Amino acid sequence: MGSYFFDVARIAFLAGVSGLALVSAPAFAQSQAGAAQAPQADNNGLTEIVVTATKRAENVQDVPIAITAFSADALAQKGITEVVSVGNLAPNVTLDAGTPFSGSSSVLAAYIRGIGQNDFAFNLDPGVGIYLDGVYLARSVGANQDLLDIERIEILKGPQGTLFGRNTIGGAISIVTRDPEPVFGGKLQATTGSFNRIDVKGALNVPISDNLLSSVSFSVKNRDGYQKVIPFPADGAYVDEEDSFPSFGSGHPSTLGGDDEWTVRAKLKWTPTDTLKVVLAGDYLHQSNNGVASSLLATYGDPSDSAQVFGGLYNLCIGTPATTMAAIGLDALCGTRASVGTPLAGVNVDEVSGNDHLTWGDQFLTGDKDKTYATGNNFSRLKNWGLALTASLDLGAAELKSITAYRKLDWSSAQDEDGSPLALLETSFQMKQEQFSQELQLTGEAAGGRLKYVGGLYYFVEKGNLHDFVTFPGGLLQIDGQNLLKTKSYAAYANLNYELTDQLSVTFGARYTIEQKHFEGFQRDVNGTFYKLVLNDQPSEANRQLLCAVANFCYPDASDILRIYPLGNNHQKFTNFSPKIGLEYRPTSDLMVYASYSKGYKSGGWTTRLTTPAVAGATAPSFGPEKATSWELGIKSELADRKVILNVAGFYTDYKGIQLNFQVGTSPTLANAGDAEIYGFEAELQARPVPALTLQAAVGYTHARYTDVLFGVTGVTTDSKLSKTPSWKFSFSPQYTIDLASGGDFVIGVDYTHTSSLFNNTENSALVARPATDILNGSITYHEPDGRWSLSLGGTNLLKERYITSGQVSVAGGAAYGTWSRPREWYLTGRVNF
Question: Is pTM beyond 0.70 here?
Fold first, then answer.
């Protein structure tokens, strides 16, 4: 039967392509009606979906922006429950859960048309803005939101600097949750599946009075990890020192890659008059996961190779007699280490029982993606909550809206990246962040409805800290990094659309931003590594001065002789003007051709992850903003009496001052290290050739290459590809409904996505590269006649494709590691409406 439906879908799709010349674009919506959609057309055509991409409610087909939009019903039918899964069906979009060494699937690595950010650091802003009911989420930590009780999700492609502002240089992802409804009722959903999965979610509407409505929703997710922690088959005794090194908590799970979290969201909607609406919303996420799956991919521990510095030193220390280490001037480095009161020098050759250490090498490669010897700390614990007050006042010809929001997160994580029972490469982080934002919007019409305008003022303030603990091989280098950051941003914006004729209109938009950033870094070399390595002596004030004089390794603080980071409270101020110019032509009511020019901007910051002392007189290493100038040409069309929606967009982006994250020794370093040109197209098709069959297809192509690379950037040339950016992406989603004589129905849906190869890191490392993939998900759902309950059986990754979603190659740190995608899984979901 599956083959039959594929054949039907293929024929219908090819017929549509050949007959309509496949010009598609950014906007495809599920045919089932959601809260923001217009009623189903009598002719069994496709359902409209309404978006707020221009800060006003409009049919997605009337918005001259490349948008991919999904209703809540569409996501439920596909079994999609979090932001990252939406990326599979959106062309030129890559969304991954987790970034290198974050240890958390709540971190979102988002890329649109080659622009994004693959990091969670507080000093680095994301390149794709995430918005929850119009509120900007400033951190990528917690951005992989649970799509709980939502109305729709919109993915806006290309720079959105005019209307969305902060750090939407690649695009924006807007999550819109459902408002309370004026009837008592609710829904409950339970899911079981692979790895002892038990998910429960529900939503309840409670009208309090005619003008005061409320709703509450919740989600609980529990699932075992898909990667097992297995004992290392060591012969003889060895020392396990993992818990001797600092970590923001303790967690030694038996599996990795599981879920343990709950979310609650509540809303109050008050309409005291016909012209005033006030919505108070709150959400809270509590996550206590056992850490992301991580596999050791390669080891670097050759003492004869200086590039493998710390893995090589570890092996040299444990395998060389202490007297020899003293003779070559390494007895201080291989001696007693901070946090551990034992030396490494000669422990494997001193004939003392019970103190032997395992040699670092390839014996820790398990050869199985779903097994690891990593017994160190692995966990992610997150508390993320927010409150938002949205007030809308109808002024007749205009609407005034105020969005006031406060958010706070508290996150700690740890990841054992060496895949062994040794403390070779381990990280732990703690982030505390809070933000406040206030936005005023005025939207309306003038000139007899020919002029549509949006204007606004925006204020944003964020403060917090990110504290790092990083243990390099055997504790020979131990980093304790406390970083304090604060940002203030002010902006004013306007967007005007004027109809010159009934068919031709122009758009002018602009945003002016002033941003102030403050940062102070307190990174410390806890073990005094460079005192020991260069001087073969312990840290002291005299040695601090000597080390700076003889080797230009300068610990800057006489009151803290282990501090690496340059002294001072650092300040940067950025100003930016982001314009947009557009032209729209509507030859018929069902066809729009548009062209646009726009600019985007992402603010700069400082490199915080220093692992070596700086040269004399050095200041905090800073980087400037990124800028993107983009041209787009698109067509949006409705054909065959709205039985076909076919859209296309082509784009060209000049991308300047790219904030590249590349390795310098053991330090992940940030710099405006390159420029690039990005061009391509995307096409999206939706068709309903017969009432029972809905077809969706999308294809995207992106050419993303560096045109200039700063001299000295490690591992990057003009031949390199931008990370997380495949050249091609194609998706196809047929859905077929079988009506039953009883009045119920079966809905069969399949989602297939082909993605060409991509690189997960800046250096285009083959070890963590992702080959071309073919992902197939599917489900069958039964709806009972009265629509009160339904039952879905589905599977994900049915072709059993496995690929690296995130990883790092740290030759100096001793290891390359990566997270493999989830294996094939099944699920069974029951839903009840009441």
Answer: yes
